[in-house]
């Protein structure tokens, strides 16, 4: 299991969101609207996206990439937002067997080729094992681009590149 890191008291990490927390999705409006300073497209390398019951799960998988948004919380909203997202994602704490997702710090890639460390919620190990054994991967790693999902805008299509080629 990946270790879960706590933010440095002197700073905060943005969040990489890839499912219902993305702009235009229901949880973005419920949890993020009015609490962010900036949002931008980003990619997360070595991670695959799997279908869940109404929402996706990210699972570590070398060579795969998922598409999402890098959400920079407003400084005054960060503490409350961290608590709210942990509750939403059923993250209890490091290594808890009750976790549905684990919150981990990972490097994300911006369209300009720069890397930004961000919090991301990955499926907890028992669930990740089940998904990799018998789950349905989302082709292209894009929750909004799945059949029946919203389509990406033209500016985002340009961000779909292999993160390793731009490093």
Could you list some keywords that capture this structure?
two-stranded antiparallel sheet; 167 residues; three-stranded antiparallel sheet; 5 helices; alpha+beta; 33% strand; globular
Structure description:
- By secondary structure, this protein is an alpha+beta fold.
- About 20% of the residues lie in helices and about 35% in strands.
- It has five helices and five strands; from the N terminus they run βαββαββααα.
- It has a three-stranded antiparallel beta sheet. A two-stranded antiparallel ribbon has the order 4-5.
- The N terminus and C terminus are likely disordered.
Percent in strands: 25-35%
Number of strands: 5
Multimerization state? single chain
User: Between the first and last Cα atoms, what is the distance in angstroms?
Assistant: 26 Å
**What is the overall pLDDT average?**
84
Largest sheet: 3 strands, antiparallel
Assign the structural class, choosing from mainly alpha, mainly beta, alpha/beta, alpha+beta, or little secondary structure: alpha+beta
Count, helices: 5
Strand order of the largest sheet: 1-3-2
Shape: globular
Order of H and E elements: EHEEHEEHHH
Rounded to an integer, what's the Rg over CA atoms? 15 Å
């Amino acid at each position: 299991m990946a270790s879960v890191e706590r933010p440095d008291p002197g700073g905060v990490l943005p969040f990489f969101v890839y499912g219902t927390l993305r702009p235009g999705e229901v949880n973005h409006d419920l949890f993020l609207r009015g609490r962010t300073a900036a949002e931008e497209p980003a990619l997360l390398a070595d991670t695959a996206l799997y279908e869940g019951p109404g929402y996706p799960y990210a699972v570590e998988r070398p060579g795969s990439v998922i598409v999402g948004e890098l959400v920079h919380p407003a400084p005054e909203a960060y503490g409350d937002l961290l608590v709210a997202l942990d509750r939403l994602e059923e993250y209890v704490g490091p290594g808890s067997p009750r976790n549905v997702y684990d919150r981990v710090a990972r490097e994300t890639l911006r369209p300009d080729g720069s890397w930004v460390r961000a919090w991301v919620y990955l499926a907890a190990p028992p669930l990740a094992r089940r998904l990799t054994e018998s789950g349905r991967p989302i082709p292209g790693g894009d929750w909004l681009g799945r059949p029946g999902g919203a389509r990406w805008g033209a500016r985002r299509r340009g961000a779909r590149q292999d993160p390793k080629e731009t490093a």
